[in-house]
Amino acid sequence: MALDFAAGCVGGAAGVLVGHPFDTVKVRLQVQSVDRPLYRGTFHCFQSIIRQESTMGLYKGIGSPMMGLTFINAIVFGVQGNAMRKLGRDTPLNQFLAGASAGAIQCVICCPMELAKTRMQMQGTGEKKSKRKLYKNSLDCLVRIYNKEGIRGINRGMVTTLLRETPGFGVYFLTYDVLTRSLGCEPEDPYMIPKLLFAGGMSGIASWISTYPVDVIKSRLQADGVGGVHQYSSIMDCVRQSVKREGWRVFTRGLTSTLLRAFPVNATTFATVTLFLMYMRREDECSVPDSETQAVLLQAPSTQPTSM
Fold first, then answer.
1. Most buried residue, 93, 107, 250, 281, by CB count within 10 Å?
2. How many CB atoms are located within 10 Å of the residue 295 CB?
3. Rg (the chain; Cα; Å)
């Protein structure tokens, strides 16, 4: 299980650096006012942020995921790997159940982290140099929210986070398992890395598509109250107001940037985790005397990339 945690840390850091600019664009598009929209679409949003706020504007709020996502991925891959060992059989259903359990557990960290990230990403919209910064950094953001609203405040959006992460991670690991088995990702395969990248990227896309409408509502709830005025009183109130003003298309806001981000981020994450686990397990096997190698192989978790 320690290997699963370490692999998750490595994969998480790689994924954050690759995907954060797309995430900033996604959040801006999800929560912008329909009456006075600042951005016409994904690419216009990219251009506007770079022009108005410099390239660093795309990396607003990166401190929170850099601190949190690395640990979150460690929890996700650690819990998922341990759950698979507890369930015993490596089946598609068990992959889904193990992934769903991992997704639910990491919400304790994911929700406050994404709250801080969202608030930081929205701060100083359209300003190259913010005249008045409400939050100095992600930690300051959480401290201020806690001082004002308590535990309930820093867990704003927890229900929607659970509704997104639990089935989302189930689909995530299930899709990866099915694709790596179908593609035949074996250690001696010369095309193993491209196959792992493709399987990881498509797993991320499948996961986001399956829960994206919930993510739109989560972002709106977490961005609500930034200026001191709360627009939504509950999840259902947010859904009602959003659909009434913008129609059902509101649930696809920012989807393009999300999918553009999902492929490289999850391709990088899954390939990094899988290769890390394979390398470390191979090192462990090499350090064992030949007379004991067979016993270790029988006791160790499967080293195939299809089963973390």
1. 107
2. 10
3. 21
CA distance 219 to 26: 9
User: Sign of the CA dihedral 125, 127, 128, 129?
Assistant: negative
For the record, the structure tokens of 114 come out as 């994404």
For residue 178, the tally of other CB atoms under 10 A from its CB is 17
Q: Is 159 exposed, middle or buried (0-12, 13-18, 19+ CB in 10 A)?
A: middle
Count of positions (residues) in the chain: 308
Query: Using CA atoms, how far apart are residues 218 and 206, in angstroms rounded to an integer?
Result: 19
Q: What is the pLDDT of residue 122?
A: 85
Q: In this structure, are residues 117 and 138 in contact, taking their beta carbons and an 8 Å threshold?
A: yes
32: left (phi over 0), alpha (psi -120 to 50) or beta: beta
Dump pLDDT digits (tens) for 77-135: 888 889 999 998 889 999 999 999 999 999 999 999 999 999 988 887 766 665 667 88
Residues 6 or more apart from 265 whose CB is under 8 A from it? 15, 18, 19, 22, 204
Kindly report the pTM of this predicted structure.
0.80
Judge contact between 84 and 98, C-beta under 8 A.
Answer: yes
Comparing CA positions, the residue from 231, 1, 20, 22 lying closest to residue 113 is: 20
Q: Which residue has the tokens 């089946």?
A: 91
